[in-house]
Amino acid sequence: MFFFSEILKTKDVIISLALQDFKLRYAGNYLGIVWAFVGPLTTILILFFIFQFGFKASPSEGIPFILWLTSGMIPWFFITDAISSGSNSILDKPYLVKKVVFNVFTLPLIKLISAILIHSFFILIIVCLLVGFGYFPKIHWIQIFYYLFAAVTLILGITWITSALVVFIRDLVQMIGILLQFGFWLTPIIWSEKVMPEKYLIFLKLNPSYYIVQGYRDSLLFDIWFWEKPILTIYFWCVTFFIFFIGVVLFKKLRPHFADVL
Amino acid sequence: MTDIAIKVSNLFKVYRLYQSPKYRLLEAISFNRKKYHEDFYALHDINFEVRRGETVGIVGINGSGKSTLLKIITGVLTPSKGEVIANGSISSLLELGTGFNPELSGFENIFFFGLINGKQRSEVESNLDEIINFADIGQFIYQPIKSYSSGMFVRLAFACAINIYPEILIIDEALSVGDAKFQAKCFAKLNEMKKSGTTILFVSHSTEQIIIHCERAILLNYGKIIEIGEPRKIINVYLDLLFNKNKNSTQEDTLIKNNYIPNEVEKLEDLNLSFELRPFYNSSEHRWGDKAANISDFIFYQGGVKFPTTIKNNQKVYLKFKIEFIRDVQSPIFGLAVKTKEGITIYNTNSVLQNTIPEVLAKSGEIWIIEVQIHLNLSGGDFFISVGIASKSESGEVIPHDRRYDSIHLEMDIVNSFTGLVDLKAKIEKQ
């Protein structure tokens, strides 16, 4: 696993580049990084009002709806943001591929770190919300780090695959966008898994993002430890490692061709 | 540490031309080795070595593979076959653009550049003033790079590239974008780096730059090395390639000898030796032509002295050339040029321009003697004379028979009354 040591060696570069990416995301906008929060918050508020006051039926399993909704939306925003920006990470920076010798393996990772920075603000927001609603910090909340790590591993594998493929097939960018929309509705984010008939639940659980979204809720709201769901945990890690492995192999195989096609 | 800075062996770069990018992907991930492409050899079996501290120029027409070669040496492109060994840290200016982020300001990019080249922020900070001063782009240093002109861009890029103190510096044409003043500054800096032992590899279309700055030059054509050697010689071959793509190959010496029928020998006086044995002969001349005629000998007189040890700038020079016609040549044209050691042509003329040789048929076997009188009002130092015999085809195209570029090497005596290249005989008087 040579590239892990490579990545460690260049960790300063990665961190600086991630910070720069974070700063540059909304460069040229007057409100700058504020947009990174306005977008997701608006979506949360819209959904909140529609369900709370429009449908007057919220699928919140006995928890204040806004908390239930936010705790599911936040990990999902992170997943979509990290996957879509990570997929473009190589297309984005041709000058690092074609003009200098740079370890392009780290490009998806840089986007991922920049997404984590935004995500951590949202975690702060949900924590504030929880405290505001009288939910005081519990030991279970610490699991957020575990689920974040799980998400990071999964996303890194996915973006190694997608970022490398996108260089050759630009259409994938559009496809990824559509797949992520599907993902939003196929994952129980604004609907409760309880409404799903028992026999279809297994299909729901095949989706690895289910594990993460549900994991956030389990940690923040339902006080469930991840080891209380051993089969799902084992399944998730098998899938994730498989994707990760494919990602590394594919990226390595396609990497020498990047400079030729970009 | 070895003495070799860069070693390139059996290097091939094959571009696969696909009908669409889809096929490239299919091939890259397929396991059955099915071919979806046509091969294009951008580089074909390249072998050379560059010694530590040497400056080597690469020349060639557009599309000859120069940039590809530099990119592979830098490590940006992966060779298809063969290998490149580079001993030492490399900094490169590839085409227009280094690893600059167009969204960031020039100032931020200096740090960015340092970062991806493995420099600590503090190291960059200590060089910051030097870089900014060298780039000398004023307030633009705080503007995003995307708003830069190509000149500003290369200024900043060059300033950054040299300030990370590489052991090997690779420059790809980039400098030609800068204005003359900046180029001069760059070359002064390059000379300084050269002295401190930096190995420099650069591509330029400026033949002068190659001759002045390089110890050796490499001529590439269609991905192959045509020749490696002394820059002046390589440049001459390159210029031929550039302007005479369809030149006839020179014929073998034996043929010339068989056809040699001396007549009018009595007129030849002292012209009975060969060009190559004369004192002023420059062995790194570049000679070509279809050999229908040969410039086979010459004599140089000044003040009644044959081949004087020093050539004075205020006295007329007589040159005599022996031309042997191997085949019939209609209306031969004799030409002569004087160049500096940097390859700048100071003077160029021929018998058509001067209307001095009648339009007659020179028959096979004839021998002509051409006399040239010339005032070499030149400054002290080295100069080169090129001579040639040619004729025009019916379609008006020039057919070179024997061209001997830089074949006569003149060492002009030092003159104290002026500096520069040519004595324009200015008289400064108080009235």
Quickly list its features.
heterodimer, A: 262 residues, mainly alpha, 12 helices, globular, B: 431 residues, alpha+beta, 6-stranded mixed beta sheet, 10 helices
Please give a structural write-up.
The complex is a heterodimer of chains A (262) and B (431). Chain A is mainly alpha-helical and 262 residues long. Chain A has twelve helices and no strands. Chain A has one domain. The mean pLDDT of chain A is 86. In chain B, helix 3 crosses helix 4. Chain B is of the alpha+beta class and 431 residues long. Chain B has a six-stranded mixed beta sheet with strand order 5-6-7-3-8-9, sandwiched between helices. Chains A and B meet through helix 2, helix 6 and helix 12 of A and helix 1 and helix 3 of B.
Spatial shape of chain A: globular
Distance between the termini of chain B: 67 Å
Strand content of chain B: 25-35%
> Radius of gyration of chain B over alpha carbons?
27 Å
What's the overall average pLDDT of chain B, rounded?
82
Counted beta strands of chain B: 20
Summarize the entry for a quick read.
The complex is a heterodimer of chains A (262) and B (431). By secondary structure, chain A is mainly α.
List the helices and strands and how they pair.
The complex is a heterodimer of chains A (262) and B (431).
Chain A: H1 2-9, H2 11-24, H3 34-54, H4 65-87, H5 89-92, H6 94-98, H7 106-132, H8 143-168, H9 171-186, H10 201-206, H11 208-222, H12 230-261
Helix pairs in contact in A: 2-7, 3-4, 4-7, 4-8, 4-9, 4-11, 8-11, 8-12
Chain B: E1 4-17, H1 21-29, E2 38-51, E3 55-59, H2 66-74, E4 81-86, E5 90-93, H3 106-116, H4 121-135, H5 150-162, E6 168-172, H6 180-195, E7 199-203, H7 207-213, E8 216-221, E9 224-229, H8 231-243, H9 253-258, E10 286-288, E11 293-302, E12 305-306, E13 316-325, E14 329-330, E15 333-340, E16 345-350, H10 351-354, E17 361-362, E18 367-375, E19 381-392, E20 398-412
Parallel strand pairs in B: 3-7, 3-8, 5-6, 6-7
Antiparallel strand pairs in B: 1-2, 1-4, 8-9, 10-20, 11-12, 11-13, 13-18, 14-17, 15-16, 15-19, 19-20
Helix pairs in contact in B: 3-4, 4-5
